[in-house]
Amino acid sequence: GAVVSQHPSRVICKSGTSVKIECRSLDFQATTMFWYRQFPKQSLMLMATSNEGSKATYEQGVEKDKFLINHASLTLSTLTVTSAHPEDSSFYICSAGAGGGTDTQYFGPGTRLTVL
Amino acid sequence: SQKIEQNSEALNIQEGKTATLTCNYTNYSPAYLQWYRQDPGRGPVFLLLIRENEKEKRKERLKVTFDTTLKQSLFHITASQPADSATYLCALRNQAGTALIFGKGTTLSVSS
Known about the structure:
The structure holds two protein chains of two kinds.
Chain A: E1 4-7, E2 10-13, E3 19-25, E4 32-38, E5 45-51, E6 57-58, E7 67-73, E8 76-81, E9 90-97, E10 105-107, E11 111-115
Chain B: E1 3-5, E2 10-14, E3 19-26, E4 32-38, E5 45-51, E6 56-59, E7 62-67, E8 72-77, E9 86-93, E10 100-102, E11 106-111
Parallel strand pairs in B: 2-11
Antiparallel strand pairs in B: 1-3, 3-8, 4-5, 4-9, 6-7, 7-8, 9-10, 9-11
């Protein structure tokens, strides 16, 4: 099946710093990638939809200036958490559609962000 | 707005029994519904997709039903094993058709 990777798998940073998370589709091209956030014992919450070559579409309540998304190529999307604060600590997961008429999404392994 | 509910947060069963998980949705008529498995600290893994015109779908020990009248899907694991212990999520495409939205999940524990 299609493989999606994320890097880093976990990151610890100080409050006020910025953190970049990469999401790559390894064996397929993804026109659209999705970024989710998951708090402990909660479900995945969609943050934004990332389209290659255009601006991301953010869900209501998600600050686009805080969570910068770049989808520069068909295999790479990045999420930058700017001026991170402890409340941004969470599990960030990206996904990509396999395309070709299938509705399945393939998820990355997630990135655990801890802001001290 | 659309709502997805997975009624049980946790389900504990004995090895060999059938696990049945429930997913209900409101304010929406999806063309299909998906089930994913998520292990702790990992991303979800796709298991099955069932379309609105399909009553039932099977894959090895997994079976999914989809009742569009009741707005409900049931997910069954037969002959359950400890390795089936995980959180199972149901997902629907949002009304705009642009992304998946997920239920909170049911954490299944299978004891030997």
